[in-house]
């Protein structure tokens, strides 16, 4: 009986991984030359001859009667099987290694016409504008995600453990939601974009040349730990609420118990004679000491502790398009790299320079930093300049009204060197050499003053007689009538030029791309899941009636017709004729197809029946 092929792949593959040379088999024998350090570590000679099938080993030995050379080789060959010392050594060495992985996303199209316009619409800048950088070109580069798998242990009166995956954006340093990535990405172990350079890191002051070095992964791990604790927020909140309730109950129970003991001892102490009083007083003291110890034990019992242990990590490399843009306002400017994700068809958000988290709307600081509104410092009351919390040293408070004033607008007294706003100049030493304190009006008070202010006088309007005179004069002049021309009624809704359909056997997914001048304006996908055919749509509409719907799979043999019906509805929505429909089958790369041909799970009766059952069970 022959051994399983997996044992042969395991041993020979690991020998090559540690630097050994493996010759092609001759007479069923694999010749392997191991490095000297590996051979010494394993305790075997560096030159080995391996056999993995008993029949081949027996045939080689039986051939010794007729072929002496083969017999010599066969007699020196080692038959490897489960339980062999060499196999056990390799397995034990592999077991000690971490189960980390490196994967690549190759199912993307690195094309996005009009990238700057897309970025301009996606990036929100309340106090600045986006401008193209002269001579800046779109670049195709490798970006990375790092998935940290933590084992979270929640320890209190009982221990709970769970696996918590955290996805981090390596180039930007912030956590990302992985739902779309896991749904759309097809992970591969072969990099088809080896010619692309990795993108530089934007969150480290001096990033190393290798983005996957320990200098990068260690600080990224600390950020991932912080993100993991934030992700556990709801779980920890409910658990802490339960623990507080149990603590209150146990605290009340123990207090009642020791109160009863104390009352009983005090009653006995009142009735005791002088000889027994010292013993009872000592007992009262012991009761109080024991009470405090028990209460401390209960507090310790219900104190929640969170331990995060890194189990392993996976690095996912994906090519993206990026473009350098300039964010500018009147007094400041900053250049940033903005990336387009061709997998999710979105512009990646820029990161806040203060908290490191992404933001849909970021403010440009006077020193070129981008910050959330919550990460800004108070605004200058004089010039209204915007500063972030990193630039708080550029702001000082007026010694009179305590309002913030920036270094560009403050007034410094030449006598006392105190800082004031322009409204309170010369009041910095008006109270016997000390500042005259004036409390600034609160926003509520300012609003009430605005309401109490007298309304502006209304603009006079013409009286009825004056209006009639104007109409009469206009009638005498004979105002010509506007010419009526036939205007072609526009088609309601967006219009596409053609629709590209992509499908393959690797994943039960059909994707439709609505194109206009080689630019996609909508993407709609249909995926066979355990709960039915799920629809995902990215069409740019604020509300899409198809996005998020789930359809019940049609009977066997009618799946293509069901998907084609949905595709035709999409074409009707974008006014694309039937002749402008193109099919592409993804087999490593996109290949032209005449029609939609579904394979894999789409044609698996068990998978379809499971999807129908899951759909029927949806509530």
Largest sheet properties: 8 strands, mixed
Averaged pLDDT:
84
The percent range for strand residues is 15-25%
Estimate the global geometry from the Cα principal axes.
extended
Tally of domains? 5
Instruction: Give the helix level as a range of percent.
Output: 25-40%
Q: Which blocks of ≥5 consecutive residues have pLDDT under 50?
A: 1-5, 64-75, 449-464, 479-489
Q: End-to-end span in angstroms?
A: 52 Å
Q: What integer value in Å does the Rg equal?
A: 38 Å
SS summary, helix count: 14
The total strand number stands at: 25
Question: Helix/strand/pairing class, anyone?
Answer: alpha+beta
List the helices and strands and how they pair.
Layout: H1 5-17, E1 21-22, E2 30-33, H2 36-42, E3 47-51, H3 54-62, H4 68-76, E4 78-79, H5 85-96, E5 101-105, H6 115-122, E6 129-132, E7 139-155, E8 159-169, H7 179-184, E9 187-188, H8 214-231, H9 233-271, H10 277-301, E10 305-328, E11 333-341, E12 346-347, E13 363-364, E14 370-371, E15 395-397, E16 404-406, E17 411-412, E18 419-420, H11 443-452, H12 464-477, E19 498-504, E20 509-516, E21 519-529, E22 532-538, E23 550-551, H13 559-573, E24 581-587, E25 589-593, H14 605-616
Helix pairs in contact: 3-4, 9-10
